[in-house]
Amino acid sequence: MPLGREGTFECLEVPGGSDPLLGVIPLEALGIELDLQNQQLKVLPMNSSQTYLTILSVSEQLLLSQGKSG
User: Of 10, 26, 50, 67, which residue is 20 to 30 A from 43 by alpha carbon distance?
Assistant: First the structure.
């Protein structure tokens, strides 16, 4: 892969002329996210400190420490 990411996944062969389908497990394992609005695939950072989940977690911790949970 040109992204430097690789994985081994189970797959099924579909008849010729069928649209290929890529499942959520391979997407997550490879750090790829669907951008449905723009109909594109987004490559996520492999470093967990750069993901939106970390940002949400830190924001939540700050709110809790300030007594503003919710």
Answer: 10
Q: How far apart are CA 8 and CA 16, in angstroms?
A: 23
Distances, alpha carbon 24 to alpha carbons 21, 30, 65, in Å: 10, 10, 35
Q: Which helix (H) or strand (E) holds 25?
A: helix 24-30
Mean pLDDT estimate for the chain? 75
The pLDDT tens digits of the residues spanning 48-64 come to: 555 555 555 566 667 77
17: left (phi over 0), alpha (psi -120 to 50) or beta: left
